[in-house]
Amino acid sequence: METMQEIMIEVSPEIAEAYQSASPQERKKIQAIVSILLQKQVDQDVAFLRELMDEISDRARARGLTPEILESILNEP
Questions:
Q1: Are 19 and 30 in contact (CB under 8 A)?
Q2: CA distance 58 to 61
Q3: Integer-rounded Cα radius of gyration of the chain
Q4: Which residues are CB-neighbours of 34 under 8 A, at least 6 positions away?
Q5: How far apart are the first and last CA of the chain?
Q6: Cβ-based neighbour number of residue 73 at 10 Å
Q7: From residue 74, how far is each of 20, 25, 36, 68, 77 by CA, in Å?
Q8: How far is CA 23 from the centre of its chain?
Q9: Torsion angle defined by CA atoms of residues 68, 57, 53 and 55, in that order, rounded to the nearest 10 degrees
Q10: What local confidence, expressed as pLDDT, does residue 27 receive?
Q11: pLDDT of residue 76
Q12: Which of 59, 46, 66, 36 is nearest to 28 (CA)?
């Protein structure tokens, strides 16, 4: 199981009070919802990055960049 790490977020005083007065079970539910929301954003960011990298790769190939040329560029001092 993945270890959990604590973070701090700013919320209104009313939200903070509601969370602090929530039962342990309610807090776990809130924490799960926040984790899901943040994970969804991470997943979207990773998907966007993959799409962007694929597009860059396609454009480079269309302009004549081969794996051999890329390797020689990367190996230049």
A1: yes
A2: 5
A3: 22
A4: 9
A5: 44
A6: 9
A7: 54, 53, 39, 10, 8
A8: 30
A9: 180
A10: 93
A11: 86
A12: 36
Confidence of residue 1 (pLDDT cuts 50, 70, 90): low
Token digits of residue 18: 């509601």
pLDDT of residue 45: 92
The pTM of this model reads: 0.56
pLDDT in tens, 16-67: 999 999 999 999 999 999 989 889 988 999 999 999 999 999 999 999 999 8
Q: d(Cα 57, Cα 30) in Å, to the nearest integer?
A: 41
Report whether pLDDT(70) > 90. Answer: no
Residues making up the chain, counted from first to last: 77
User: How far is C-alpha 76 from the chain's CA centre?
Assistant: 33
- Whether the Cβ atoms of residue 20 and residue 12 lie closer than 8 Å to each other: no
